[in-house]
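Lecture 7 notes. Example A: sequence first, then its structure tokens.
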Amino acid sequence: MDSDEFERVFSVNLYVPNIQNNLYVQKLDESGTPVSAEIGTATFALYKAEDVTIADDGTYTIRDEATRVQTQTTSDMTMPLELTGGAMFSRIPIGEYYLIETSAPTGYVASGQAVHVIVDNTGVYADAGTETDAVSVRRGVGSVVRSMVQFATDDDVDTTLHDIKTELVSGEHSGNGFSWDSWDANVGNDLHLQFRNTHAVLEYGTYEGSGNPYFEVESGWSKLLVRQCLAHQEDGSISSKKQHLDENQDLTNLFSGTVTVCVKNQRINSLTISKTVVDESGEAPEDQEFTFTLTMTDASNDQMNASYNVEGTGLPESRTVQFSDGRAELTLSHGESITIRNLPAGAHVNVTESDIEGQSYTTTYAVGDEAPVSGKETGELEITDSGSVNVSFTNTYVPTDDFSFIKTDKDGKALPGAKFALYRLSCSADHNHSEDEISVKENGEFLEDYGYKACWTLVHAAESDDITGQVQFTDIPTEGEYRLVEIKTPDGYAAPGGQWKIVYSDGRFQPKGNGDASVGNPPAIKEENEGGNVTYSIVNYQPGELPFSGNTGIRMFLLIGGMLMILGAAGGTGWYMYHRKSVVVHRRRRRHRI
């Protein structure tokens, strides 16, 4: 057969992909949590830059005749990108724009930022502004262009693009376009990614399989650079069928890239209450519910009678909280929180956590970013238009034990009618706690002019038993230093003249040792040990009785007083004998002269 009779025809398939210029936006609350469309939707509009004027303070003005390039409303997106509270501006023409939030979700304040967006032949770019403007920009590698998928798939043919690394660079924009920083091998902020073949926009995932496959920046212009990654070839699960590209080969234009503008909104007039349980005792009940009582008045100080929508993880079935006569109740367990929406500006609310009988724990609360404070009641909080009021309650279960003693007279007879209060040292203020004598009333409350109320917390008050004279304090946390104060003395008996320091040591509560057992000069706490059973007693004296069993200060006082009395008596006797002798001699002399 003559080969000259055949006509050869050659063909080549050229894949020319077009990468769409898409911009994503996501709505977040002030804590960075996505705002689901179930809560409310936000609307964003894209304007041409020539229709928007930006003032020096960052505020903007839209020209009256301006026409929106695109308008999008947030939804809980699943495709092409999974974004809760997200929206997509697609096929944006090359140009310069501003992204503006035109309406916020119900219960939120719309952002006042106009985000600068530029689209050119290399992709979409968004300015994250400053670190304090509540706007950030996420940049992801996106998907590999369709013509290059064959080099990304993990097979035995060619996996050149299966493993890549990306690095975030910053840049500046001027009338001549962008000027970008170059890849810096010493920065150490590159992200290693692998092809996942998920057919999604973000079809590359992290090499470790966890973490976010994108960078997020809080300020300025940013760009993502892409190179081949050969750092994990020793991993047996990675194909070795790769063309080893030059280590500086830029692959950025083979990927679609994703740009997501994240815009935070402040909540309007809301109250968030959260509960945390810390179990240091091993005895905290699982899934324990804690009850909170809310009392609220409006700006005119009238009690509230209204129902408000709520959201969070500790929701009632009705998803509402009802205030009646200014009062409402709700329950939360560990890790739960609840947010009450659309409260009226100027309202005042007080949040109180109820005690649970039979359980021992300490409670602190914190309002916003303030330091935690001991207690279960917040006091009056004002609801304002500036955002939400956040109150977090923490219950800490700690090991506890009991402390008791017998109240007696000087002869050991039980004394009823004595009342004691036990205070726990709860601050580290710059004053001498060791020498501070707590000033309190008979009911255990601090005197109004006492300057260190914040340093002590009343734990319990107890009265001596009518028959046994026993004073019993139960479920006292074993950590910390305590002060025992006799706040009411039995009729006909003198006040002790001081206060006792109590600590937990050797498996029981007992007076503090090392010569530091008290403040002032109260009678010493008497200890008796019968076969390992340790008991304590405290004496009250009647006026005129000497407290011989007092502490070191009293003993020293009595010793010095006794010595002075002995010296005084000796001196008086000596003076009397000397004076008597002088009189006798004088008389004898007179007789001799006669």
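Example B, a different protein, same format:
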Amino acid sequence: MTETLLGSEADEIVDAKNFSGLSLVGLLLAIVGSFSLAYVQMLPIAILAVVIGAVVLLLAKRKELSGFSQFLGMSAIFLGAGSGALGVFSRSLATQYDVQQAKVVSAKYLENVAQWNEDVLLLLNGVTLEKADSPKKTSPEATEGKVRSKIENDPIHMEIRSRKTAPKWVYAGLDGEFPSESGGYVYKLRFIDQAQTNPPSYWVYARKNCPKGGPSQAPQNKGRTLGPNDLVVNWYIDSIESAQKL
């Protein structure tokens, strides 16, 4: 009986000696990587946690690691992989929603260029139009004049406007996305006018007035409690360019 107790105590000592600090590091990294649900910059940390957890499990038998170490390694894998995958999936859904909104705004803009509905074009360029009886304009006349001059003299606008055949716009895909200097986020969409004999294609740069992650990610909104009006996202068109291959 005494020998059995001594043997049990010896096993506990060996088990304690084979605790892996690497498994604890993996779990801590997985906890930090779980912030990849909100911040894409944390995704590499979540991936690293999964790798460390897998290494711990692979070495468990050879190094005779304790059951607790293996548990930590497995937890690092599940937490890192789960949070990383969920973060990627949620951002993918958000991107798809943004692209859909950008498509709607871009198609509307192109249609109004062809019809030359100047008021709509100004609105989609970010100019606030006031009624004649409005006591004061919220949009400076210089800004309105600048935008009006841009759309009236831009070669692409003039080209689309001057066509005799009504356009048939077909969305051809997303060619790029990037943050804008104003703090918003821009999607570069390609459209083709299938109504023409040699269908020309164009890039439309659609911008939303907040970062990709939404208004809460704007620097000026950090730490603030946002109201319903603060969460409104507006879309504008920055420019149109010819996408014809030279």
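Note on Example B: The helical segments are 2-17, 21-33, 43-59, 67-115, 118-124, 141-153, 155-161. The chain is about 50% helix and 15% strand.
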